[in-house]
Design goal:
single chain, alpha/beta, 5-stranded mixed beta sheet, 7 helices, 190 residues
Length: 190
């Protein structure tokens, strides 16, 4: 993803923005519209925890007018201490697997739902946006994601790892875009 201006929005996206009362607004990530529709149709709220994206996901979600109907809260847990204190990530998991791991991403996502009782679904992002920070087996651009959803039988939790090319801004933007697309599918199927 480059730092070029956002492409023109499709007629459907423009109509949705106009219906939301933002006819002159341009969303940084138009995929927010799809996710908002899914969450609103289910009367669900979302909460997020971010590390390498530093609040970019929460900012993207709340860029859409009316997002308070489906956005509960966001945590920026950049340090390991913040992950432990705010989300209940186990220090031993951090020590064994490192902050950029699916194990930590899962615990971050479940920690969000523990802290945000009104939320039905949560996502976490932890990764190496660069330019430094790479370690053996985890190059710059490695990002782990955790997804958690409340269900009748408890929590459904999954995690994934992706590798994104580009500079710091590109890795962060690609991470947010991946989450928005994945969350819309994840939430729509449940």
């Amino acid at each position: 993803m480059s730092s070029d201006p956002a492409p023109p929005q499709s007629p459907d996206e423009a109509a949705a923005l106009q219906a939301a009362g933002a006819s002159h607004a341009r969303l940084s990530f138009p995929e927010v519209l799809t996710l908002a529709d899914v969450l609103q149709a289910r009367l669900w709220k979302i909460a997020v925890a971010e590390s390498c994206t530093g609040g970019l996901l929460a900012a993207s979600l709340t860029e859409l007018p009316g997002s308070s109907a489906w956005f509960e809260r966001g945590f920026v847990t950049y340090s390991n201490e913040a992950k432990i204190e705010q989300l209940g990530v186990a220090p031993q998991i951090l020590a064994e697997h490192g902050a950029v791991s699916e194990q930590v991403a899962r615990q971050m996502a479940t920690g969000v739902l523990a802290a945000a009782q009104q939320a039905n679904v949560a996502v976490s992002i932890t990764g190496i946006a660069g330019p430094g920070g790479a370690v053996p087996g985890k190059p710059v651009g490695t990002v782990c994601f955790g997804f958690a959803q409340r269900g009748p039988d408890g929590l459904l939790v999954c995690a994934s790892t992706r590798h994104f090319d580009g500079d710091r801004a590109a890795v962060r933007a690609a991470s947010v875009q991946y989450v928005l697309r994945t969350l819309a599918l994840f939430s729509a199927q449940r």
